[in-house]
């Protein structure tokens, strides 16, 4: 990513950076272990017309709480970024199977009444967007844990200390362990939709990029804001790396959403805090946030594959 992902904090910070470097190097080795699928230069899915578009992903894709909800079980909105991308690209076939709570496992496993997400793909699919991995590292648990621990030391970094109490950063390790899962997803996408243009969508900026806090609007301890910001950047860095090593494209939604995080006033906010003021799930994009991600995806698509 274009943003700095280095944690601060002297010698201990340097040790954490070393752990992250090893973890991300491991991601690269895992992703490169098997040769990626061959490209299909003459296949559809370039900057021109899209014929069949399938959107896979979790709640950041589905848009829970944003009107109008078209699938209550999955929290899927008709104003989420796949719907906005489809409105612009006007594919003959548009299938959005994104679902709140999805992990990489839901690519192959049913989620309630919803079939495996990979079932949405076939040889005619020529555009696939994938936004997954946040639930694999435990987004919801991280938020709950950090909010609970904040009361113990509101000016300190109790959440960071908890996740690093064993001598290594458990969240950095979780991100590294998620990398091969995302690799497997991308290879399965290629197997089912061999002619598709595959786009991995990163996660937006949930917290201020400068590391400042906004307790109690976002109930994290002051010193945990930089740590959690860096964790989000690490996740996006892993997704970018895995996409690049598996012949997929990556869309940065972090950069375009900086300055519109949970701490901003309602008029400027594209990510809602834990008590939303606009229709959206807590700690999730609102309609403006989904529109911002749609613009980022469309800009990537319009540049053409393999460029930028």
What does this structure look like?
The strands form two sheets. The protein has a five-stranded parallel beta sheet, with helices on both faces. β2 and β3 form a beta hairpin. It contains ten helices and seven strands. The protein has 308 residues and is an alpha/beta fold. Helices cover 40% and strands 9% of the residues. The longest helix has 23 residues.
Key attributes of the depicted protein:
single chain, alpha/beta, two-stranded antiparallel sheet, 7 strands, 40% helix, 9% strand, globular
What's this, in brief?
The protein is an alpha/beta fold. The chain has ten helices and seven strands.
By helix and strand content, what is the structural category? Answer: alpha/beta
Distance between the termini: 13 Å
What is the CA-atom radius of gyration, in angstroms?
19 Å
Number of strands: 7
pLDDT averaged residue by residue: 88
List the strand order in the largest sheet. Answer: 4-1-5-6-7
| Principal-axis shape | globular
